[in-house]
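Field log, afternoon session.

UNIT: design team B
ACTIVITY: writing a sequence onto a fixed backbone
BACKBONE:
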């Protein structure tokens, strides 16, 4: 949970309605700019990878060390009533993902580099949450990878499912859980 506290690697700032947790490798202004670009893209339906009533995923460019870095922005919207009860009893999914990404990095499991997590508050409830991670180029989402693998012969399917279950078992043995 070190990534939720001010430390040598992480910072927390309040920027208007946002509370932003970010890696100190990146500039706060860049993180806020990416969130603004994401919201703008959502309004204009540009660079949107996926959009549902609760989630939106977009690809944006973040300025880092005078160069452009391709990032993925995930937004999660809470309804105020359900958000109230969820906030009391459960951590929101993007904050959980922020924590899990850092836990996986500590355990030397390759994951997209988490850059920032932000919450936009209404009173003490989060209305919108954002997670910014570095984009992994030349990769497939897990669902497409599994579809591709399962289109092969039956013996390959069994081996693939065995390897996948072994990987998940390894995660569980290292006290990493998924939902």
């Amino acid at each position: 949970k070190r990534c939720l506290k001010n430390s040598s690697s992480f910072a927390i700032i309040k920027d208007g309605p946002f509370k932003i947790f970010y890696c100190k490798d990146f500039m706060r202004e860049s993180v806020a700019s990416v969130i603004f670009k994401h919201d703008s893209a959502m309004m204009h339906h540009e660079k949107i990878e996926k959009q549902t009533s609760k989630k939106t995923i977009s690809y944006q460019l973040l300025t880092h060390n005078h160069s452009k870095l391709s990032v993925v922005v995930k937004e999660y919207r809470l309804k105020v009533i359900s958000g109230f009860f969820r906030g009391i009893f459960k951590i929101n999914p993007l904050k959980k993902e922020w924590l899990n990404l850092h836990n996986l990095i500590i355990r030397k499991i390759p994951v997209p580099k988490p850059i920032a997590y932000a919450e936009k508050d209404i009173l003490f409830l989060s209305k919108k949450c954002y997670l910014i991670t570095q984009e992994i180029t030349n990769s497939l989402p897990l669902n497409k990878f599994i579809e591709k693998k399962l289109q092969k012969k039956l013996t390959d399917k069994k081996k693939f499912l065995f390897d996948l279950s072994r990987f998940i078992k390894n995660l569980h043995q290292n006290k990493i859980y998924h939902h």
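LOG NOTE: The longest strand covers residues 67-77.
NEXT ACTIVITY: expression trials, pending approval
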